[in-house]
Each structure stands twice: as structure tokens, then as C-alpha cells.
Input
Amino acid sequence: MPAINEKTGHKEPRRMPKRLTAIDFDSSGLHVVHAERNGAGLKILCAAGRRIPDSLALNDPSAVGRFIASALAELKLAGSTAVMCLPRGKVVLKQLRLPPAVSSDEVAAMVLLQMQDDLPFGQEQTVIDHIVLGDMHSRPAGQPDENGKPSVKPGDGEKPRQEKPDTQSPASSHPPNGSSGAGPSGAAESQKDPARAPQAGLDVLVAATNRDTINFYASVAESAGIKMWGLGLRPLFDAFAAVYCPVVKGYDCAAILHIMGEQAEIAVVERGKLCFSRSAVLKVPAPAVSSDVQADADQIVSQLIMETVRSLQSFQAQSPESNPGIILTAGDARIEPSLRQALAKKLGIRCEGMEPKVSGLPSGEEQLACVSAVGGAMACLSGNGQNAAGPRNDLFDFTCPKRPPEIRDRRKVRALAAAAAVVLACLGSVLAGHMYLSAKRDRVANLQNQYDKLAKDNKAVKAIKKNLDEIEAWNASQRDWLDHLANLSGLFPSCEVMYINNLRSEGDNQFSFQILSKSGDAITEFGRKLAAFGYEFKPGAITTAKDDLGYTYRSQCRVTIPSNMKLELASIRWEPRPANDLQAGEVQRPSSDRPGGNAPREFRPSFTPPATTTPKTSPDKPAEEPPKTAPPSNWRSFRKTR
Output
């Protein structure tokens, strides 16, 4: 959504486009006028209208924007630069009297100062713009104004106006006094007392609306896919269009009655400038209440006459010397001819249709319907004799309101500069500290990675050290463990009777192992043999378990070696190995045939393996294979390796 440019004003001029699309929509319909600048004049390239569907929600900016986009696409105007019309009912108008000979900056500042206490909503939620009317009421009668036109009446002067705000809010259509200009004052009093005669000054018309309204139209433009160049006031656009109507020539003051849907806007144009405007809600009968079209039209005409009379009386109350000489009607209510006749008969004033003479503009009812859009295009493209760039002092633009320049205090500027320097110094320190800490963090991260790598490598070193400590402890015990193992092997019965499992050393002088035996007496006898030899034998409980080879008896035993025990290995006689012992054949192999180089000392068993004979074979009968005897699957034995 485009934001409101409140700082643009007259310091940042905007270039007037060469072509512009004016869009005016309300509950009655959509009116589009596409025009271009033609030298100092204006040329209408396209003027069309569309009826608003009953199903279209006018309070939904997206739906309204899509409807406008489809209409512009049909007219081949999609994506064009556009100006939109803001209804009178959404704007608060007030006419101010300012001191003469003030600059545009001072005018904007005085407007904001005087309007801050007269708004129905907060100033931070308000968009305020103004137009300069000039010195309209203090000029001597009979002298021409800035447009070269004479004043309304000759006289001795004009009474000053009281600054009274329009209390009509954007949601209301009936102000208490219906006025947008100054309040009345007694003309007779100013004639009696010359000291109270009006002084020279500057008349300014101020318009204010809330930001939500501006944002609504900005959302509509965004949904329609157009670039909103400006947002003006519809009665002011009607006043621009009235200047181009031939019927207005010869009249210094004219009234405009614009009918649209269920409301009407009444404005008064004096010397080509808008000086009064109000809106009125029409109580249109519903179709279910009355089916008589003519009766409904007569009721609407009566309401319009009443609202017009009320508005003219309000205007004459504040400006008794100004009397509209003609009433112009515009809109597409289809009752304009009968309304003009009734107004002329009621007020005795000339009533004509509002038909500005512009190149390319169609005539008839279609021209009356799009008169506001025509006025918007005229106001934005013609420039009214002003420069094409910069602010328009005679035009409301709520997207670019006029603002006073910012007054700079040098002391504050210096203080802000010093504060900025301090902030920059702090930021520099923070940045330097951040860079220093980042370098330190990177260093810590690298060291942590190195530490993790060394810790991972140190695990293998710790394992080697543990084994080394165990070997050193073993050597420090001064025990010949291998001799004791050999001695125990000699004391151990044949493996066909018993074998051990899970052999391990405990402490400095103990062995623990599990005995698996074919009988419980063999375990007891083995314990006695160890005790007789000098070992301390502590057998555990003897249990039984199923075993495929018959070793059903089991016991967890512990053997303690005395410290002063002496061994004589020469007297040991080991039990012979069984014939199917594969370890016996491995021990008898020469050392040169063994893988791994040097082999332990040759071990000569105390038994001779039985000789094997090869059975004789005959051609008719194959040789019988010797029976295969598998070694026990779970037996173990010790052998001397030193």
C-alpha cells in the first residue's frame, strides 16, 4: 500500500503527468475520464461510466479495486496513472482568515496550529491540506480580483468572518449549521462602527480527513493496479469543471448540486473558487415500500429542493452579500430535468445542467454523470496557470498534503552530532571487541579439536600402558608362573577324565578356573593331589549339567601358590595325550615348518602314538576307511612352552 507522503509539500515538487485518468465512484456508479494536456488546454480521450453491481461491497477495497481494474481493462487503461475523488461526507472543511503577506511555509504552519483543536479525531490520525483562496472579502467593491472579475456588489466594505469549524465528521452528512466557511457577523454593525471594518487578510480553505480513509483509497488503487497520483475533493473538482461551463459566464457566484446514489453534495463557487460545501443524505424509498416510480421521483426532488434551500440559507448566513445567480446540476439520477424546473420555480433562480466545454467530452446525461472526473482531470492537468511542478495552492491532494518546513535548531543538531559520534565510538568498540572475541573463539575451537584428537589417540597408549603395568606387576611378584602352569599340567589328570575352562590369574599368587569332569570323585582326587604337592586348593560347589561328551560335573576352583614353594619340573610326569589330540602333532612339528619363524622348545611326550596300519585292498573290494574319532569339542590342556 502506498504511504501518505506528508513531507513532500512544496520542497519536493512532483512532475505533472502528460496523461491522467480521473476516477470517481460511489454507490450510483463508476465514472472514468482519461485526458491529456493539449498545450495550455485539455483534451478528453475517453469518458465512460459503469453501474455498480448490487452485490459489490463498497467497504471492501479489494473488491472495489478488482471492479475498477476490470472496467479499466475494458477501456484499455489498465495500469495508468490516476487521480481519485474523495466525497464531501468524508472530509471536514473550515475556512480560515490569516494575516496578509505571509509565505507559504507560514501558511502551512498557521493552518496546523489553528486546526489542532478543531478536529473530531486525533491529530496523529489526521491528514490536513489547504488551498489559498486569496483576499476575497477585504477587497474594495468594484475592483477586479486576481481573475480579472469584478466583485459581487459595490459597497463600503465587508464584514469579517468568524472562524467556525465544520462539525460534520466523515461519518455524518448533516452538520449543525451546514457550513464549511466562516460564521456570520452583523453587516449593520460594521457599517455603524468603521473601526470594526474588515482588514486585509488571506482566506484559506482547510480540509481534514482521517488516515483510514486515505489508506482505503490507496488499497483500492493497489488492488486496481493503478498508480494513484493524487486524491482530491469532489466538490473542488466540480468547481474546476464549473469554470468551463459557458452558462456560468456573467455570474460571480454559482451553486452546484451534484446527485449521486443516496446522497447529494451542494457547493457554492465564488469568483471561480470553492467557498462553501456540504453533503446531504437522501431518504430514497425502498422498492418494496413503493412501486410508483413517479411518486418516488417526486419525493426525491422534494428532498433535494429542501436540502438545496437549507444549504443556500447557510451560505447566505455567513455571506449575506453573496447570492448565487445560477444553480448547476450534475449526476446520473435521471431526475435532473424535473429537478431543475422545480428549483427554478421554488427559488426563482436559473437552473441549468453542468456541461463544461472540453474537447472530446460527450454531451447529454453521460456528461452530467462524469462531471467530477472531468473536473479532476482539468484540475490536475491544466495547472490553472501555475507551474506544472510543485504543490498546487488551489488544489487539495491528500496523498501529498502541504506541510511546513522543519525548523532546525543548531544546538540540537550539534547535540545530535555529538550523540552520533558517541554512538559510533561505542559501535566501533563493540565491533573491535567482537572481532577480538571471535579470534579467541576460533583459537579455542582449534585447541579443542587438537585436544579431542590427542585424547582419542591416547586411548591406545593407555591400553598399551595397562598391559605393560600388568607385565611389570607380574615380574615384580618374582614368581615363575609358567613353571607353576607346567607343574599344574603335570598334576592334572587326563583330559579324557577332566579338563578346565576360563583359566585366569587373580592377584599375585592365585589361579581360578572351572573344572569340567566326568565324575565328582575325580575333582576331589585332583584337590587332594594339589594339597599334597603344597598348593592351597579351594573347590567350589560341584554342580551337574547336561554335556554331549559326558563332562557333567562342574566346579569353580581357586588355587593359591605359597610364597616359599619350590618346583622340581624334572620329576613331573605328564599324562599322555589321546591319539586324536591335534595339539600333540603340532608340538612335534619341526620349528622350520611352523608359521611365524622360531617355535618354542620341542616337547617330547612320554608316550608313543600307536602305529597305524593300512588295510589291504583288492580290486574287487574297496579299502575300508578307518573310523573317524573327533576330538572333544570343549577340552583344553596345558603344555610346557619354555
Remarks:
- The radius of gyration is 58 Å.
- The chain has 13 helices and 18 strands.
- The longest helix spans residues 410-476.
- The chain has a mean pLDDT of 76.
